[in-house]
Amino acid sequence: MSIRVFATTALFFYLLSGCGSGGASSQGTGANGQTSDMGTLASVSDSTIFTLANASTATLLGISGQSQTAGAQVALDAAGSTTPDIGWHFIPMSGNQYNIENMLTHQLMGVSNASTSAGAQVVQWADNGTNDHLWEFYKLSDGNYLIKNVNSGYYLEANSSSGIDQAARATTGSGCTCQEWTLASTGTSPYPAPRTVNVAYSGTDSAAIGIHDPSIVLAGGQYDLFSTHGLIHEHQSSDGVNFSDEGYALSSLPAWTTSFTGGTGDLWAPDVSVHHGQYWLYYAASTFGNTDSAIGLATSSTAEPGSFVDTGSPAYTSTNCSGSNAIDPASVVDTAGNAWLAFGSWSNGIQIVPVNNSTGIPTGAACTQLAFHPTGTGIEGSYIYPHGGNYYLFASIDTCCQGVNSTYRIIVGRAMSITGPYTDRGGVPLTQGGGTILLSAHGNINGPGGESVMTDSSGNAILVYHYYDGNNNGDPALGMNALGWSADGWPSVEQ
Fold it and tell me: By C-alpha distance, which of 64, 96, 57 is closest to 79?
């Protein structure tokens, strides 16, 4: 257990510095009324985990009691602590703004109730898109940093009476060292790199088109990889590492899709699974930003390129589930053997409907909402994976498809029933913006998302996703990582 204490000498100095109330009055004024050092807006690295030491006390920033509970206070750990809650990951957002992710809990540093008042407590919470989760780093002349909350304009402060809060910085005097932080890289990546894979491109395809929204199925010793664009790209592999470009899953464009794609013929977000010896290929017909969308279904007995036969009409449309967006389909079979279809996007979140076990067509039953992000940051690309008596809902949040500027990341929640309610590890319902971060940007891995989960030839769960490769012009690429499971049943990304 981590015990948060101040070293006696550090505490004595801290109290003398005048940082006690958490408001602007807590800041000291130096001799001759000199201007306080406000620092210069700086960028920080997302490639490694950092520790944050308070310049006044040398104590390290962590989570009170190493709690996983949403709303737990950000607190100070003893200097020299090695507990896992002292690791932080800076996730780039727009400009030089960052989310600050705790690497024990995978929640974000924010301000209680998104308060804009001085003295408000700093806490952890799910990435629900509120502006109190945005921070800026200002480098001071002494090499330390001020960490400014974008929502309130106040600075992260170690306060002797109330713990970690936000407060104004004095514009005269030397400025309180309780608001200064030393950043130290641990040299450890926040997440393991994706497995090395080789994806070939031929004909009109190119690495610039790359892989989006990948779905992989293993059957008969062959890995079939399907991804967004055209008539659904298809790659094949015998080893799960080297994928050849085999063309398209569909031999011709289903006529009914034209009214949903605006005539582009571009089909999205394939999901492939095997049911009773048949491959079911769900896909989305839509245009970017349009909620008048539809989900199609094509089937094949072999999964060979061009062998999938479309049903000839939409399997499901946005009008079938009021307010929803019928994109990003994902098939799942519950523990009783019943088939379901999850889908949805920014408009009204993630939904699920039962489907006919023989045909794959939704039965007409009402849709059930599984997840929603009320702040408009977006949630989409869901996938449900049964494991250990629970159902795990994986989804992508924030912004896709902006190359290295994408802020996509993968979250997860779990439920005992396939229809929910799903909650994250911190206890926040996914219908209320919850979701524990599973994978976020790090190093050259930008905007990971569009995920699915496959079972490999050894029976291991493999997270399959796309990302934008900062080492290759920001081109979209295939990511694959094994999933590990904690003692209390939560997934984590492994090599």
Answer: 57
